[in-house]
Amino acid sequence: MKTEIKPEDTNRAAAFNLWMKSPMPMVTLVKTLDVSNLCKISRKKKMKFTMLMCWCVGKAAAGIEEFMTLPEDGSLFKYDSLAINTIVVNKNGGINSCDVSFVNDLLQFNDEYQHLTTKVIEEGVSVFKPESMIIGTSAMVQTELDCIVNQYTEKFANPMVMWGKYRKGIFKTMLPVSFQFHHVQMDGMQGAMFLEKLQETIKSLRI
Fold this sequence. Notes:
Blueprint: E1 2-5, H1 13-19, E2 26-34, H2 36-45, H3 49-62, E3 69-72, E4 75-79, E5 82-89, E6 95-101, H4 106-123, E7 133-139, E8 160-163, E9 167-168, E10 173-182, H5 188-204
Parallel strand pairs: 5-7, 7-8
Antiparallel strand pairs: 1-4, 2-10, 3-4, 5-6, 8-10, 9-10
């Protein structure tokens, strides 16, 4: 559920006053992650790497309070659920958005991910969950990328996690990840904490 809240009643009051009317309030952090464990799980369990990344993004974000608030149209809103957005190429070659509700159970998340993305591929119709706090993702696996800076639009201030093709080494598989967020929602401290939690989640995942 989505509820409007007063910025002065939150720990984001100062940030709201500073950055709400900024023409470019987005911040981008970049970190190279060790995704060897996800590649191993993907191969052994026949799970999509992108799905695993999306679940890890949700798991890392769920433990950080700031992810549950978001500025929109000059106001601040609080959410009680998270969903991960993934971009899907439909059967006609176009792209659609697909929001997948985050749950702690990876197998349950995988089932919904597979069901919804298959539906989007076949029907070419996006799936949105407007009552959840959406974390966007975008996987551009056609090439290796060092950094991605997304466009900023007043229509989409949600946090965004982006990556390209992972890099296979002799002992490790590495993946540079760009994380973009609105400065009203969180500071660099919480952004850096999220990236650390994301790495920890990836390394510790067991199925």
